[in-house]
């Protein structure tokens, strides 16, 4: 009996539903297969061009990249904290104003007070960095992309690749840290020229055979995202930073 005769949900309707579900499942399989093919092709191109850089052994290139390749790596990152305190000491007024807070009169501040304000920028950067590191580590152990092999026929002044043994490649934590660092310097301290550092860090990590090119690109996007989030949601951590800077330092502009 048809639906027009009063029958609801008869055999024909159930058959149609089954055919529709099969069609949807086939379409989803085709889409997954297409995505896998695209990712495979991207990976192939990435490895091809990364390998060209891995196989390069030129002292002139390494001398340019060596500092940047190490700057955000493990204990070396302490130097970025020192630099943040130093620059924050001189540009604390720019920091406050760019974040929407009233600048403090320089005549009212002594050396210790300015140093505390500079140190708050370091804490601000460290908090953003902590969230960023957590997210990159989760992604590393989720994606589990192997790092490039150390090429014995190439020469490097420092075997930075050895320090990365046993860890995964995607995304690049150093590139993420550099991107977060550059974003905060550019938007909070108004030093946009700092972005010249980012491509050098990314290139250095590839040159030392620690990463593929795509690792550094994804890492830069992640670091930029967390830098932006720290800038956008600064009001949430301002009370904590005020405990360090002292009362009357983080007064919102009217």
Topology:
Elements: H1 11-54, H2 59-71, H3 78-90, H4 92-98, H5 111-143, H6 173-187, H7 197-207, H8 213-232, H9 234-245
Helix pairs in contact: 2-7, 3-5, 5-6, 5-8, 5-9, 6-7, 6-8, 7-8
Roughly what percent helix?
55-70%
Total helix count? 9
List SSEs in N-to-C order: HHHHHHHHH
Mean pLDDT figure? 84
Overall number of strands: 0
The tally of domains stands at: 2
Spans with pLDDT under 50 lasting ≥5 residues? 1-9
Overall radius of gyration: 26 Å
Structural class: mainly alpha
Biggest sheet features: none
Distance between the termini: 74 Å
Determine the strand fraction and express it as a percent band.
Answer: under 5%
Bulk shape: flat
Account of the 3D structure:
By secondary structure, the chain is mainly alpha-helical. It folds into two domains: 7-54; 58-245, no CATH class. Helix content is 66%, strand content 0%. It has nine helices and no strands. It has helices spanning 11-54, 59-71, 78-90, 92-98, 111-143, 173-187, 197-207, 213-232, 234-245. Helix 2 (59-71) crosses helix 7, helix 5 (111-143) packs across helix 8 and helix 7 (197-207) runs antiparallel to helix 8 (213-232). The longest helix has 44 residues, at 11-54. The chain is flat, with a radius of gyration of 26 Å. The relative contact order is 0.14. The model is unreliable at 1-9 (pLDDT under 50).
């Amino acid at each position: 009996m048809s639906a027009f005769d009063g029958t609801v949900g008869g055999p024909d309707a159930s058959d149609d539903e089954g055919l529709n579900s099969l069609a949807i499942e086939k379409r989803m399989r085709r889409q997954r297969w297409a995505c896998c093919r695209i990712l495979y092709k991207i990976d192939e191109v990435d490895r091809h061009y990364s390998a060209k850089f891995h196989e390069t052994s030129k002292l002139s290139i390494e001398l340019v990249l060596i500092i940047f390749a190490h700057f955000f790596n493990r204990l070396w990152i302490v130097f970025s904290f020192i630099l943040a305190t130093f620059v924050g000491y001189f540009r604390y007024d720019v920091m406050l104003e760019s974040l929407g807070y009233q600048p403090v009169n320089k005549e009212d501040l002594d050396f210790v007070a300015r140093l505390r304000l500079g140190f708050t920028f370091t804490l601000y950067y460290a908090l953003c960095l902590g969230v960023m590191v957590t997210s990159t580590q989760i992604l590393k152990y989720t994606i589990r992309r192997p790092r490039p092999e150390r090429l014995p026929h190439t020469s490097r002044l420092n075997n930075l690749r050895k320090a990365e043994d046993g860890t995964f490649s995607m995304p690049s934590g150093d590139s993420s840290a550099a991107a977060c660092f550059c974003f905060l310097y550019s938007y909070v301290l108004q030093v946009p020229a700092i972005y010249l550092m980012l491509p050098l860090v990314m290139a250095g990590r590839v040159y030392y055979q620690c990463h593929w090119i795509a690792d550094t690109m994804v890492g830069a996007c992640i670091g930029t995202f967390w830098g932006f989030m720290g800038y956008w949601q600064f009001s949430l951590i301002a009370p904590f930073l005020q405990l360090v800077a002292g009362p009357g330092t983080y007064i919102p502009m009217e």
